[in-house]
Design brief:
Double Stranded RNA Binding Domain, alpha+beta, 103 residues
């Protein structure tokens, strides 16, 4: 699984990079089909945003959140990504069951 972290309009501190890497890699426990992630941390006037693009099999899960703090934005993105990955996994499993029962 690849992990690409990009900082826009600022230099990413090492402690924040390490925090993002550690937390992002834990998403693998919610869906085993994750091929890679692109994480974009950005800075715009009063807000800080995080965008996460997750490659799952033949689909992309895109999540974006913004707040007044980068860590807070990242934690919000993680929560949403976790929910979406669980939902996607359940959907894939239900279609696999349907295929097995119809055969």
């Amino acid at each position: 699984m690849y992990l690409n972290i990009t900082a826009r309009r600022f230099r990413l501190p090492d402690d924040l990079r390490q925090y993002v890497e550690e937390k992002s890699l834990k998403l693998g426990r919610y869906h085993e089909g994750i091929l890679g992630m692109d994480i974009i941390l950005g800075w715009e006037r009063q807000s800080r945003y995080v965008e996460m693009i997750i490659d799952v099999n033949q689909r992309k899960v895109i999540v974006k959140e913004e707040s007044d703090d980068l860590r807070k934005s990242f934690d919000l993105v993680l929560d949403r990504a976790e929910r979406q990955l669980k939902k996607h996994k359940a959907k894939v499993r239900s279609t696999e069951k349907d295929k097995v029962h119809s055969a």
